[in-house]
Design goal:
Number of strands: 31
Mean pLDDT: 84
Distance between the termini: 85 Å
Low-confidence stretches: 230-235, 363-370
Shape: elongated
Strand order of the largest sheet: 20-19-27-30-11-31
Radius of gyration: 38 Å
Strand content: 35-45%
Helix content: under 10%
Structural class: mainly beta
Number of helices: 1
Largest sheet: 6 strands, mixed
Number of domains: 3
Length: about 425
């Protein structure tokens, strides 16, 4: 009786061990790099009551097996699953990694090299890549100055050095507009002066770019219906719109065309900065219409001295869509009497899809001529500056609201700066 009770207790004890291990696995289900365990059982010693006997030819009887009573079970081993992959999840951190298969990271903990499955990584104040779960510095091979990995002794991975913390800025040379121009959008109706020139109205569209020094600028375009065809109808299969530059802002949101001057009494006066830009038209320069003056309104050389408001010279580019499909047809192009479309650019790489934008000069020294911080346009090769790609735009009806965004760089994401 007592023997059977002891065997049952032994079974309960090893079952408790198994439940402990399972519970620990569950508790660490979200622990980064955790390695689960499993329990293996074995039976324990047997008590022999009578030994085995062999066959007896004299009595013509067979042998008998030994009589043994088991005394319960025991835990043979607890095995750690070091090669099995755990569940992967997104952490939204650029340095975190997931380790596949039987691979490990080598880390240095207090001078001792250890292996870990934890891929939760960060950078310490010294620039070393380290594992956040054990504070071990990740070991690996470093690259030489040419970017070649030197497969030598694994050392601390110092990924943030003075040389690596910054890089020379690259100017943006391409931008891509994305979205839809709704033909029923009321903002598309332009405001015209007595001569039929566009003075206002339009759907605002912006894109940003970096100059050679890494400063961010934003260009504001306005897209309107063709003033010669305000109802956006045509005898050809093309629906015409126009695109024009309304303003360009620096990283502080101030127009590059206006200069602020603080007066002795603390007030601010505004004037033209002299900045000029080009938008298609083979690099023809334009800026504030400095011919406008109105002493009563405080307008001097096209700029209101008190508010900074100004009048921009108009430089519009034709933007064409297919009237049947609503898809983009061409930009900076001419429509013939027969409905044919001829791109105005000589550079076939961009003709019909891109308009060139460039900033040429300003009153500040860094914005003058070839020493400008902005990408420059070469009229000889019809290239340079910033190529603004319109070919991803559409002209579908979507409730009377136009939605246009952009991305820096061309369609392939190159030249974004």
């Amino acid at each position: 009786m007592m023997r059977s009770l002891y065997s049952g207790v032994a079974g309960l004890k090893i079952h408790q061990t198994k439940m402990d291990v399972i519970g620990n696995n569950i508790a660490n289900v979200n622990t980064v790099g955790f390695k689960s365990s499993s329990v293996n059982f074995s039976d324990t010693f047997y008590q022999t009551i009578s030994p085995a006997t062999g066959p007896n030819s004299t009595t013509n009887t067979a042998g008998t097996n030994a009589k043994q009573i088991g005394l319960g079970g025991l835990v043979a081993s607890i095995t750690t699953n070091i090669t099995e992959n755990g569940g992967t999840t997104t952490t939204n951190r650029a340095l975190d990694v997931a380790i596949n298969g039987e691979s490990f990271l080598v880390v240095n903990v207090n001078g001792e090299q250890l292996f870990t499955k934890s891929g939760a990584l960060n950078v310490d104040p010294s620039g070393n890549l380290y594992c956040t779960t054990n504070n071990g510095i990740v070991q690996g091979w470093m690259a030489d100055d040419d970017g070649n990995i030197v497969k030598d002794i694994a050392t601390d991975l110092k990924i943030m050095t003075a040389k690596q913390t910054s890089a020379a800025p690259t100017a943006t040379t391409a931008a891509t507009l994305l979205g839809n121009i709704d033909p029923n959008d009321k903002q598309l109706t332009p405001t015209l002066d007595a001569n039929g020139n566009i003075t206002g109205g339009g759907v605002p569209v912006t894109f940003s770019f970096y100059d050679k020094l890494g400063e961010l600028y934003t260009v504001k375009l306005m897209i309107t219906k063709n003033p010669s065809d305000p109802n956006a109808t045509t005898t050809s299969s093309v629906v015409p719109y126009t695109a024009r530059v309304a303003d360009v802002y620096n990283s502080e949101g101030e127009s590059i065309f206006v200069k602020k001057t603080e007066q002795a009494d603390g007030s601010v006066k505004y004037s033209s900065s002299g900045a000029q830009i080009s938008f298609g038209n083979k690099g023809a320069k334009f800026g504030i219409d400095t011919s406008l003056n109105d002493a009563d309104s405080g307008i001097v050389n096209g700029v209101n001295e008190n508010t900074g408001e100004f009048t921009m010279k108009s430089s519009t580019i034709p933007l064409l869509f297919n009237s049947q499909s609503g898809n983009f047809s061409a930009v900076d192009a001419t429509v013939g009497a027969d409905g044919s479309i001829t791109a105005n650019r000589s550079n076939q790489q961009y003709a019909g899809n891109c308009v060139n934008f460039a900033i040429y000069q300003g009153e500040d020294a860094e914005h003058v001529g070839n020493d400008s911080t902005f990408p420059q346009y070469d009229a000889t090769n019809d290239n340079g500056g910033i190529e603004v790609d319109f070919s991803s735009l559409t002209q579908f009806s979507k409730g009377g609201t136009s939605e246009v965004t952009y991305k820096r760089g061309d369609k392939d994401g190159k030249n974004a700066g």
